[in-house]
Design a protein that fits this description.
single chain; 178 residues; mainly alpha; 69% helix
């Protein structure tokens, strides 16, 4: 995964202590948030867009987020998962165009595009993908995932179980076809 260009964020208009605190939080958390975003969205460009959109919203409310939440990083991750699911719901509808373009714009290939595990992960529903990413990519416990996503621990277990079963099935099919 190549690192996207630096994410520029407008800082919230509040005290300089809050600005410095938010800046330090972003500086410390950005690499992990970009990795999480990449795992959620499937590519680094959408991941950077997702992280930027969420941090813009949270930056404007940073003093409130810091005061009211026990773990701002968990709050940001939950916001990213919610934003990704909302974006996915809005864009999953078919978009019709009047004319078919003559040529496809040349896009840089994602190095994970043809990796069977990444392909299978991309096909999971957003909530299952979020649980798998938080558990196995970010290394969070079931309790931390439940708190991050705002669901019960039982939901985390059931979503993880369904996702793992789906991944095993898809990976098994891939091996048999080879």
């Amino acid at each position: 995964m190549t690192a996207p260009a630096a994410v520029s964020l407008p800082l919230p208009a509040s005290s300089s202590v809050d600005l410095a605190d938010f800046g330090e939080f972003v500086e410390a958390s950005l690499p992990g948030l970009l990795r999480y975003g990449h795992a959620l969205t499937g590519n680094s460009h959408d991941a950077a867009d997702l992280v930027q959109a969420v941090l813009e919203k949270i930056g404007a409310r940073w003093s409130h987020v810091r005061r009211k939440t026990g773990d701002p990083l968990a709050y940001v991750r939950r916001s990213m998962a919610n934003a990704h699911i909302s974006r996915w719901r809005r864009t999953r509808r078919e978009n019709l165009v009047a004319e078919i373009p003559d040529s496809v714009a040349a896009a840089r290939a994602d190095p994970f595009e043809h990796e069977p595990l990444w392909q299978a992960l991309r096909e999971l529903p957003p909530k299952q993908r979020a649980v798998i990413v938080l558990r196995y990519y970010e290394g969070l416990s079931e309790v931390e995932i439940a708190a991050t996503l705002g669901v019960s621990q039982g939901t985390v277990k059931s979503q993880a179980s369904k996702a793992i079963a789906s991944l095993r099935k898809k990976m098994g099919e891939g091996r048999e076809a080879s």
